Amino acid sequence: MVATTTTAMTSSKQLISVQPEELKFQFELEKQSFCDLKVTNNTEQNVAFKVKTTSPKKYFVRPNTGVIHPWDSCVIRVTHQAQREYPPDMQCKDKFLLQSTIVTPHSEVEDLPQDTFTKESGRVIEECKLRVLYVLPNSSQGNPDGDSLDSSIRGLDVPGNLSVEDSQALQRLKQERDAAVQQTQQLKQELDMLKRRRLRKSNAGFSFKFVILVAIIGIMLGFLLKLSFSSPAPA
């Protein structure tokens, strides 16, 4: 991960940290794969982020823009779209850029100006560059006869009478299960974020209505007092 800034930094500490520091995708023809990035806010202020890539048609990023509260974190899921052919030498030249900048307190995604991540905004913007790696699923690193299985398969707790194909199928099922669990956790996180936004908006709406009500009551009281003082005294 390479961190740079578009303007001078006031502190050597990075606004955010990203794990892992590179995107690894299991490459299979005509199959999607994904990689989760955990982005952590290392400051006491709200930090906005935006994800960019050199190949936007090959990837689906969710969320690609967001605001992380102080010392909080979020998970960005990057999905690699299904491909119909293998890349040359299984090498990927795609790159990702994660931009981050400090924003005002209580800012949300919909509140961010369009120029938040541009040089013209005058903000200090950090940039983290992430490279992409392709990994072949169930790649054997044993002898040429194929007697040994991939280390991930050998690490599975499965009966010894299973064939290589059955072990590989079992591993794929476990990977799909883990992916479903991670997706459920991400959906819960997004739901909690939506609840917090609604709560803030409802509180803000209540405060505004309360101020209007107090103002109306004050105007009415002033009007009544004015009438009482301006009315003629009885003879």
TrEMBL record:
InterPro entries recorded: Ig-like_fold, MSP_dom, PapD-like_sf, VAP
An annotated GO cellular component of this protein is: endoplasmic reticulum membrane
Reply yes or no: does the keyword Secreted apply.
no
Per UniProt, what is one Pfam family of this protein?
Motile_Sperm
Sorted UniProt keywords: Coiled coil, Membrane, Transmembrane, Transmembrane helix
The coiled-coil regions, if any, are 170-197
Q: Name one GO biological process term.
A: endoplasmic reticulum-plasma membrane tethering
Q: Which domain of life is it from?
A: Eukaryota
Answer whether the UniProt record assigns the keyword Ligase to this protein: no
What are the MSP domain coordinates in residue numbering? 15-135
Q: List residues traversing the bilayer.
A: 206-225
Q: Which SUPFAM superfamilies does the UniProt record give?
A: PapD-like
The entry sums up its family as follows: Belongs to the VAMP-associated protein (VAP) (TC 9.B.17) family.
Q: What is this protein called?
A: MSP domain-containing protein
Organism, scientific name: Opuntia streptacantha
